Amino acid sequence: MPKPNLTLQQKLIKRAFTEIGAGDIDYPIQHRPRIFADIIQLLFHIPSLGLTRGRFQKGEPVVLVIKGAIPVFYKGHPYKTPIKIWVPLGYPRDSPKVRVVVEDQAIMSIKLPHPYVDAGAGGLVNVPYMQAWIEAHSERTLTGLVINMCECFSVDPPVRQRVPPQPPAPVPTFPIPQPPQEQEMQERHEEERHEQVMQERQEEGKRCKGQRRRGWVCGLL
């Protein structure tokens, strides 16, 4: 577990006390000390989690929400799994509701299928610790729930990184074949040019030969 940030924990304790003890969330008075203790215990052990409020679904009452990333160790490498935990008004008797939350779906996605996370239900989590919660609610805590999630997710992480699409392979370029007529004209032009160059070389050779002959005659005179 990461080391707790005491300054941050003091702020979270104050926030939790305000939300639970004097806030407008309708937690039963007899359950508020237990809710306060469980939330503070969890935030103390995992400082990457924070406290806010919200509705699990539209139309449901506002409750406390614990959100952030929990540590996961998969094949010896550390990862972070983003989650949200809704603490229901019936807590601790009623089980918390948990989702794996992927903010940027262009980068990350929930694994399909997954034994503990239902991507089709918005990342709803159902780990073994949540089963038979009502019967064993006196022994269940938020910290125990998150520890069990870390254990399950370390065996089979629910979040994976999307593979970016590969750029299309470059299309090979080939010389465009010329029509037969144009190709024949080009070949004929090259042949004429070659003949012209050879003719110019022959005339130049004759001129040089004539000059050498005149110079030889002048020398005899």
Descriptive overview:
The protein is α+β, with helices and mostly antiparallel strands and 221 residues long. The protein has a single domain (6-161), classed as Roll (Ubiquitin Conjugating Enzyme). It contains 4 helices and 8 strands, in the order ααβββββββαβα. The strands form 3 sheets. Strands 1-2-3-4 form a 4-stranded antiparallel beta sheet. It has a two-stranded antiparallel sheet with strand order 5-8. A hairpin with a 5-residue loop joins strand 6 and strand 7 (124-125). Helix 1 (6-21) packs antiparallel against helix 2. The protein starts with 5 loop residues before the first helix and ends with a helix.
Briefly characterize the structure:
By secondary structure, this protein is of the alpha+beta class.
Helical percentage: 25-40%
**Which homologous superfamily in CATH is the superfamily?**
Ubiquitin Conjugating Enzyme
Across the major sheet, the strand order is 1-2-3-4
Number of strands: 8
Which overall shape is indicated by the principal axes computed on the Cα atoms?
rod-shaped
CATH topology: Ubiquitin Conjugating Enzyme
Q: Which percent band covers the strand fraction?
A: 15-25%
Q: Mean pLDDT, rounded to whole units?
A: 83
Structural class by helix and strand composition = alpha+beta
Number of domains: 1
As an assembly, this protein is single chain
